[in-house]
Design a protein that fits this description.
Blueprint lengths: L3 E6 L2 E6 L3 H16 L5 H14 L3 H9 L2 H9 L3 H21 L8 H13 L3 H18 L2 H7 L1 H6 L11 H22 L5 H9 L5 H22 L6 H23 L13 H11 L6 H13 L1 H9 L11 H14 L9 H5 L1 H19 L1
Antiparallel strand pairs: 1-2
Helix pairs in contact: 1-2, 2-5, 4-5, 5-6, 6-7, 10-19, 12-13, 13-17, 13-19, 14-17, 15-16, 15-17, 16-17, 17-19
Length: 376
């Protein structure tokens, strides 16, 4: 059992790994800095840390070093200081990377550091940086952890595939929150479109599908992005040109995701000229026993090109666009086609998007679930 070094800052007591007098002093100064804003010299901390790594080469020693950042990080999270919480792990990662650069044949496992830093970024809603860090944590796991163990236990892997059942993850509360967001959309698909796929089946068919790893990564990122946009839209923050651009881009990306999961199962995948989105949607329509054929989709495309707003409004409000009314799931497919084929090509203010964002998102999720249910 390793020894502990305990110290007080104001009314708080911290207990960290005893790494020797020099490192203990530096960690105490680091902690104190986030209370007083003074007394910490990063260059001195880096110098002592590099010396520690030179003289303590075991994985256990490295783990003890990184463990000393955790109590401070947890304290900052509790205070809602997400910016400073991320900064703590930026210091830890940058020093360990510098040591690796100076010792080309030696590596330090940084997966946990990247994971905790990613959590900090996601909590402050810096989603892109957070996901980059989370996937960097996964890369560290792949280099240092048995592949079977990665799937069973690493928090980064559980996060990026939305494994809400895995207990061994600090950020499980957020994973559960996002899984519930998916489940709400899935329930809507089941009740409004007579969908049969369950959440457990969705996990097996899609989230755990080894052939769809990239698509799953993109799906989980877009979940966070879409949920954030829906929240911002409810707050009235997206009623402007930039808001329109963000929403249309997110919708377009989700349509691209639908494109990719259909393409993976498309029988004519060897012919690049038969991989257009219209061909993929016809393929999905046939597999689902729908009647949305090429002639109808081409006509819908003309409608979107001529008057995007009116066509979208008719579809999401289930008004007839043909003499024979489309089924609601066929309307969903038509909406996804309109955004994938037309909407993202022009930058302009689209107030009707923020007015109907929730309905549009529901329509796209319906097509996504339909593709997973019928093709996998």
């Amino acid at each position: 059992m390793s020894n502990k070094f305990t110290f007080n800052i104001r009314e708080w007591q911290f207990s960290i790994e005893d790494l020797g007098a020099s490192m203990n002093e530096q960690f105490q100064k680091l902690y104190n800095y986030y209370f007083s804003g003074k007394g910490f010299e990063r260059r001195k901390f880096e110098y002592e840390s590099l010396n520690f790594f030179y003289n303590n080469n075991s994985t256990n020693d490295h783990d003890r070093y990184f463990n000393n950042f955790t109590p401070l990080w947890q304290f900052l999270l509790q205070q809602g200081s997400f910016f400073y919480a991320e900064q703590v792990w930026e210091i830890a990662v940058s020093i360990s990377k510098k040591w690796e650069e100076q010792n080309q044949n030696r590596k330090i496992y940084k997966g946990t550091s990247y994971y905790f830093r990613a959590v900090s970024c996601i909590l402050k809603e810096d989603l892109e940086k957070g996901f980059l860090l989370m996937h960097q944590a996964l890369e560290e796991d792949r280099r240092n952890v048995n592949p079977t163990d990665i799937q069973r236990s690493t928090p980064a892997y559980s996060f990026v595939i939305l494994d809400y059942e895995q207990q061994n993850q600090l950020f499980r509360k957020k994973v559960l929150e996002m899984a519930e967001f998916v489940e709400q959309r899935l329930y809507n698909y089941q009740t409004s479109r007579n969908g049969k796929i369950t959440m457990a089946e969705f996990k097996v068919k899609f989230l755990r599908n080894p052939g769809l790893v990239e698509q799953v990564f993109l799906f989980v990122f877009e979940l966070f992005h879409v949920k954030k946009l829906l929240s911002e839209n409810r707050q009235g923050l997206t009623q402007n040109v930039y808001g329109s651009m963000l929403m249309v881009q997110s919708i377009f990306t989700f349509s691209l995701l639908i494109d990719n999961i259909i393409k993976y199962k498309y029988s004519n995948h060897q012919d690049p000229y038969k991989q257009r989105f219209i061909d993929l949607l016809i393929f999905l329509s046939e597999k689902a026993n729908l009647k949305l054929d090429k002639s109808k989709l081409k006509e819908i495309n003309k409608m979107f090109t001529y008057d995007f707003h009116r066509t979208l409004d008719n579809l999401i409000n289930s008004r007839p666009v043909f003499n024979a009314k489309l089924q609601t799931i066929e309307e969903d497919i038509a909406v996804s086609y309109g955004f994938r084929n037309t909407a993202a090509h022009k930058i302009r203010d689209r107030p009707y998007i923020h007015e109907n964002l929730n309905k549009i998102v529901d329509r796209l999720f319906n097509v996504f679930f339909l593709a997973v249910e019928k093709l996998y």
